[in-house]
Amino acid sequence: MSDPWVSMEDDVRSTLQALVHSLAENKKLLGRRYSEWAVGGPTLEAAIALSAMTQDELGHSRVLYGLLEELRGMPATGDADWTVEGWSLSVLTRPFETWAHLVVVTVLLDSALTTLVEAATTSVFPPLQRRTRKMVEEERYHDRYGFQWLERLARHPQVRRVMAEPALQVCTEAMAWFGPPGDLAPLRATGILNADADELRDRYCRRIRSALEALDLRLEAVVVPWDRWDPAWRRLPLDD
Amino acid sequence: MGMTADQVWQVLQAVEDPELPVSIVDLGLVRGVQVEGDDVTVEVTFTAMGCPCMEWIQEDIRARLSRLPGVGRVEVRVVWDPPWTPMDMRPTAREALARYGVVARARARSRRDL
Fold first, then answer.
1. I need a labelling partner for A160 at 20 to 30 A (CA). Which of A108, A138, B72, B102 fits?
2. B99 in a domain, yes or no?
3. B108: distance to nearest CA of chain A, Å?
4. Is residue A2 part of a domain?
């Protein structure tokens, strides 16, 4: 049987490599942002939860960097390189100002990354597929935890209003991250993912609809400025 | 005559997850052992992808197996599928955890469901 990586078309290979790199770095930075609240959550339980979520994200990032080494035919170093290379989304480039902001990111961005990972659980590319089920399993808690906090905070009209602006920004960045319409089609066609960018966005929208509604927001309010999409880094331009 | 897989499993029994500490065999972290000639391959998984003891445990496995007479190359492969769940633990691990005050539920799906 031929090596699926060797027999992969160049465009499929480069798309997969960029996607994994982006996922790995965004998880790395998400872990870093979570860690800043591991000693600053509103309750002791919240701080401990964030400590565990930090551990998960950094662990996922390490495993994904291991996959990148494999994809590039490099020997596994076993050492995590924590340098930020430029793949990160804007929302992760600076600390979250409030706990409410963190909750918004957990519900609306962490879940976007998981939506992609879930689409790889059926992958025909074993090195990717083998790493995804455990990741999805661990992310179940992030989803549950984030939604519970969001519902709790959204009961207060004032907090709801504070959360609305970052929610729209995070949502826009997350939707853009899947890529413009038609993107990732070669990965779907080859069975590396079970969805292209449009399907991933649909799944993500279904996942977050109730969260947006809790914040008095509607999905229709999220408009991705595709003319500003940067295909090299799979994101909208970074904020100034 | 070289080493057998049974002998490798016996050696691995002494390797503990330092966080708990319980044998990695009893925890169900050892997914497979292959012996080919003098070379040994151990497939191991972890309770969490962010397990801070991954390197430590792998080093312990390599060190203990390498000390055995007649053992050549020792390879430790990290595997993630199928994901580890508390259902993979042997009763001895449950008993050991109970002594530390941790009760593993019979239907727990992950470490956090313990």
1. A138
2. no
3. 12
4. no
Q: What is the pTM for the complete model shown?
A: 0.91
**Does A191 reside within a domain?**
yes
Please count the structural domains in chain A.
1
Enumerate the residues of chain A whose CB falls inside 8 A of the CB of residue B57: none
Q: Do B81 and A62 touch (CB under 8 A)?
A: no
Which tens digits make up the pLDDT trace of A160-169? 999 999 999 9
pLDDT digits (tens, 9 = 90+) for A93-121: 999 999 999 999 999 999 999 999 999 99
Which chain B residue lies closest to A129 (C-alpha atoms)?
Answer: B81
DSSP secondary structure letters along A157-220: HHHHHHHHHHHHHHHHHHHHHT-STTTTHHHHHTTSSS--HHHHHHHHHHHHHHHHHHTT--GG
Q: What is the CATH number of the domain that holds B78?
A: 3.30.300.130
Query: Closest chain B residue to A60 measured between Cα atoms?
Result: B49
The CATH number of the domain holding residue A99 is 1.20.1260.10
User: A69 falls in which pLDDT band (50, 70, 90)?
Assistant: confident
Size of interface A-B (CB pairs under 8 A): 45
In A, which residues are within 8 Å of B109 by CB distance? 137
Among A76, A105, A104, A75, smallest CA distance to A88 is for A105
